[in-house]
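Help needed: design a sequence for this.
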């Protein structure tokens, strides 16, 4: 049975982007040695989730999608044979974006996503929001897997995961930068359960401002045939400290479960959901 392994890179960022580059590349190599199929970074890794008030300082931290920083992770993905989901403050013609790109194990870029639900009540008011949720077929050492992306505050809106499920996501990759406490964890648990999909959430460790580790993953399998009662869907939960934490998703079993169980898309009645469009 195929098992997809996602390395949640719960790492402490450095002050300088060059140091984050070196630390990030070295950590991807460690993840590959641990058997990971995908390396997933926390939110805006290139700058350690810094959003200065000063516009010039903010723009100075932003980088483009084709920057040397991003290209280095693309090259490593190809060289090491591991998919890499790297996060960054993206330079645009207007305000910067909170963005993510995903390279497959051959170094091909398969996904570019910008955070839809920015924290506009806080520092992210200085950023530009994305406009669409995306999925992609990712080539991994376990074969092709359809992945979707959410970033941090996207989690607070059930529509985020539901749209990704409708677009075929089997596993959601979720960079994060906030305290992971019981209610935020419960939201991810509910998303995995209601949509019959896996979720891997990668946070910064304790010591990074307003973060506490506890990167977490759920496989979305609420119960198994011939087993009494419901099961714990949690695959792994990290502690507060820095580290690389592997989440193992039984992808074949997850697909079979999606085919036979009743949640997700099977009994939806979208004709009654008109209020959601107002």
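Sure. Designed sequence:
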């Amino acid at each position: 049975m195929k098992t997809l392994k996602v390395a949640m890179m719960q790492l402490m960022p450095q002050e300088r982007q060059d140091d984050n580059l070196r630390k990030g590349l070295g950590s991807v190599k460690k993840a590959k040695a641990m058997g990971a199929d995908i390396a997933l970074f926390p939110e805006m890794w290139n700058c350690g989730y810094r959003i200065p008030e000063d516009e010039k300082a903010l723009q100075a931290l932003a980088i483009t999608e084709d920057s040397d920083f991003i290209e280095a992770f693309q090259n490593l993905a190809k060289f090491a044979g591991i998919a890499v989901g790297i996060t960054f403050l993206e330079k645009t013609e207007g305000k910067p974006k909170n963005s993510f790109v995903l390279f497959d194990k051959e170094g091909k870029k398969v996904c570019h996503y910008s955070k839809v639900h920015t924290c506009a009540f806080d520092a992210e008011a200085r950023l530009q929001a994305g406009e669409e949720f995306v999925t992609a077929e990712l080539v991994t050492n376990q074969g092709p897997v359809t992945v979707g992306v959410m970033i941090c505050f996207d989690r607070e809106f059930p529509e985020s995961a539901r749209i990704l499920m409708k677009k075929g996501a089997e596993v959601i990759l979720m960079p994060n930068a906030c305290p992971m406490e019981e209610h935020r964890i419960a939201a991810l648990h509910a998303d995995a359960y209601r949509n019959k999909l896996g979720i891997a959430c990668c946070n910064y460790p304790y010591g990074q401002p307003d973060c506490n580790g506890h990167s977490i993953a759920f496989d979305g399998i609420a119960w198994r045939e011939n087993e009494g009662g419901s099961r714990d869907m949690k695959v792994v939960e990290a502690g507060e400290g820095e580290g690389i934490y592997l989440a193992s998703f039984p992808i074949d079993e997850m697909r079979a479960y999606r085919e036979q169980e009743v949640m997700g898309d099977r009994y939806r009645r979208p004709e009654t959901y008109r209020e959601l469009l107002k």
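The helical segments are 17-33, 55-61, 68-80, 158-166, 182-195, 251-260.
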